Hints:
Blueprint: E1 3-12, E2 20-28, H1 35-41, E3 45-55, E4 57-58, E5 61-66, E6 75-84, E7 92-100, H2 103-113, E8 119-128, E9 133-135, E10 142-147, E11 158-163
Amino acid sequence: MKKLFVIGIGGSVSKANIEVHDVQLVIADCIEKTYEILKEDWYGEHLHLDEYKALTGADGCAIQIKDYPQNTELNLFFLNRGGYLKETFGEQHEYGFFVAKTEEEAKEKAKKELLKNVTDSHVDGIFKVENSLKFADGMKLYIHLILDEKVYSLNPDWSGYKKLI
């Protein structure tokens, strides 16, 4: 069964003093089937996995993977929110997935949920998930959002350090 994997990766890149991190979204049968596409798209060295989650739902909607598009006005957005803590050096980040008709609506939802205890909070990045999907087996698939009002967590299924390159 195909799953939507949210994958936190990191590695070293030219001219950076510390490793950089990114989030990738890949549809695959299992996490191991995402490794090749992650390696192909990485632009630096020492690529590693930091965490992953098979996303089953978000923001009151279950997520299903189908081979045809869904006819809906709703979109699944990924949002990276940044902000600062006075006692901590460096920008803090929190990620979330939000179901909304528009980017502005997703931003408003995120403002209420992410990084509530920081100063100068801001959106570091937002995108429609469908525009950033990668497919482990090359077959284009589609996310279907099914309203169910459940609360879904972004807690990782696994976290640690797994070297890929």
